[in-house]
């Protein structure tokens, strides 16, 4: 309980003082407000602008049909692989479907581990610093005329490169897909309009009406229509060698690789990488460069306790050691 209180105390720092923070944790004995994400959403006291903190746990908190404007914050992922993440290394798992329905405009979800898909039915949604490990269509724009969707700093782990990680098959505008690892494909329809920047892409790519810049692709299955394609790096000839693009680049020269590195850390650029400074304006290509550099483990932009040591039994004097850091 002391650990949970410390986590919440740190989390509240920097949040809107007028908004309420609710805790969700299904672990037996947890002192949280709710044991399921849907119950936290449905509660009468939960109103637009509130924050739901989904604590890391081995126990399921379900999925969500969201019809309120909420900030949902998890604990991150790959927590045991990267240093100084969380003292509690369980991820905040959302293990059923997640729907952004009318009324949820302006919502944001970050630091969560999705084992099912997110379906978007409304505009003005931010999906940031999450892990997706599902199958086909992990993130799906299910409505027409979606606008202002921000997909930033996520890790899409796909089973096959031909399965779509992100799909926007209908008319949509101002879609930002930036600084993600995308293991599956991109399925962007003929009426898509948006920006695809600073990603690492391992799946099939089909894009329309996009600005496609500063990306690194390890898969030559690529088709682009009516798009601006500049300053990208390809393992084959998919982008050509004009307009700042590089072709036939050996990917072992680009990334630090898996040996000795975390699942997401292996995509950092190695010293001397041809992606360093190769992007538009001299920024690095790939997920760690540009305007929204990828944050290891999807750590949310709040302080986090990464070390906690206290006696298991209370005494008259309790010596507690805590280490925390910010992940902006």
Q: Could you characterize the architecture of this molecule?
A:
- With 328 residues, the chain is mostly beta strands.
- It folds into two domains: 1-129 and 296-328, no CATH class; 143-294, no CATH class.
- 5% of the residues lie in helices and 31% in strands.
- It has two helices and 28 strands.
- The protein has helices spanning 2-12, 37-42; strands at residues 21-24, 51-54, 64-66, 71-73, 93-94, 98-100, 108-110, 113-114, 118-120, 125-128, 131-132, 139-141, 146-152, 155-156, 164-168, 172-178, 181-182, 185-188, 192-197, 200-201, 205-208, 210-213, 216-217, 222-225, 228-230, 233-234, 304-309, 321-325.
- The protein has a ten-stranded parallel beta sheet.
- Strand 1 (21-24), helix 2 and strand 2 form a beta-alpha-beta unit.
- The radius of gyration is 20 Å and the shape is globular.
- The relative contact order is 0.12.
- The model is unreliable at 1-16 (pLDDT under 50).
- Which shape, going by the Cα principal axes? globular
Oligomer designation: single chain
Overall number of domains: 2
Q: If helices are DSSP runs of H or I spanning 4 or more residues, what is the number of helices?
A: 2
Using the CA coordinates, give the radius of gyration.
20 Å
Biggest sheet layout: 10 strands, parallel
Portion in helices: under 10%
Spatially, the strands of the biggest sheet line up as 1-2-4-7-10-13-16-19-22-25
Structural class by SSE content: mainly beta
Topology as a string of helices (H) and strands (E): HEHEEEEEEEEEEEEEEEEEEEEEEEEEEE
Q: What fraction strand? A: 25-35%
- The count of β-strands is 28
Spatial gap, N to C terminus: 26 Å
Mean pLDDT: 90
Q: Which consecutive residue ranges, at least 5 long each, have pLDDT under 50?
A: 1-16
